[in-house]
From TrEMBL:
Name of the protein this chain belongs to: NADP-dependent oxidoreductase domain-containing protein
GO CC terms, sorted: cytosol
GO MF annotation list: D-arabinose 1-dehydrogenase [NAD(P)+] activity
Keyword Cytoplasm found: no
Top-level taxonomy: Eukaryota, Fungi, Dikarya, Ascomycota, Pezizomycotina
Amino acid sequence: MEARLKKTECVKQAPLAQILPPVILGGAGFSYQVYPDPNISQVRQVLRQAFNLGLRAIDTSPYYEPSEELIGQAISEPDFANRYPRDQYIIMTKVGRLGADRFDYSPSWVRCSVNRSLERLHVDYLDVVFCHDIEYVTEEAALDAIGILLEFVREGKVRYIGASSYRIDLLLQLAQSVLDRYGRPLDVVQNWAQMTLQNNRLETDGLKNFRDLGISCVCNASPLTLGLLRSNGVPVGSLGDFHPAPAALRTAALRAADYVAEQGESLAALALRYAIWRARATSTSDFQVSTITGIGSTKELDENISAISQILLPTHGSPINSARVERDAPLWNKVQEILGSWLNFNFTSPEANWDVQQQKFVKLKL
């Protein structure tokens, strides 16, 4: 899972598919959205243990407050920095989304946001910067932001550029427009909760099309569907319950968790193994599908690493433990049977009363 980078590659860069590892640590676990009290002690412990176990990539965002600041503090501490030089890990962050209903894709803010992220993270370059949740703004705004990110690429402050969204159709549309306007593809896209036991639309509707558009990497975030696919319900941080799942879907997920527990298994571990299996099964030497898993504690980290090591083999041959897949398959099928009509149910993003032109919620007409 380790990736080694050289600063000199900031000018002539290797394809991202060659350096992005299969598993990425999600910085949303250090945010008020999913954790009641994110703090430096928590982040320091998780990052040190994660790096000791071989994880070498972190995905965060200014929206995941205060994730960037805490990560930056942890990785800049002398004992960590001396043990893990900057060229031995990947940092991915985002621009554009500031809060639950606050977005700023203006060129001036994108420049400010990138420079602020560099300062917060105490680094002199960012490996990947995504335009965050592009469905909440116009395509023109996202395209302009991509243009600014390309300026940072030329300056060597950003190495690769991408876009994130729940909406696969809008990611594909933007990717085509980037090709048309800038004559080069996006390096990577990030989609969430759609290569999971509950929803596999990223695999069926997205991957081939992304590859055809020249994109070499796809990040599958939220393999547990924002914490839906686990035994203790959706995570609730200090900002309250933000999860988009309807009550009936939550109930079905809890029924599935109870069934899996009766079989002596954890739904969270089972769901993570499924997501990683599908990501590796759809990756090739020049097209990488990576899994971003949010981790907020060392306990969660140990559980995730255990699940990952059961399905992902440290080998240059077949990376998947086929015996584990065979063992898990009946449980995967049963979970999907329990989910029933909620299988491949899509969330609404953006919300029905969001106006992309005004970038704010408006009153719906009756």
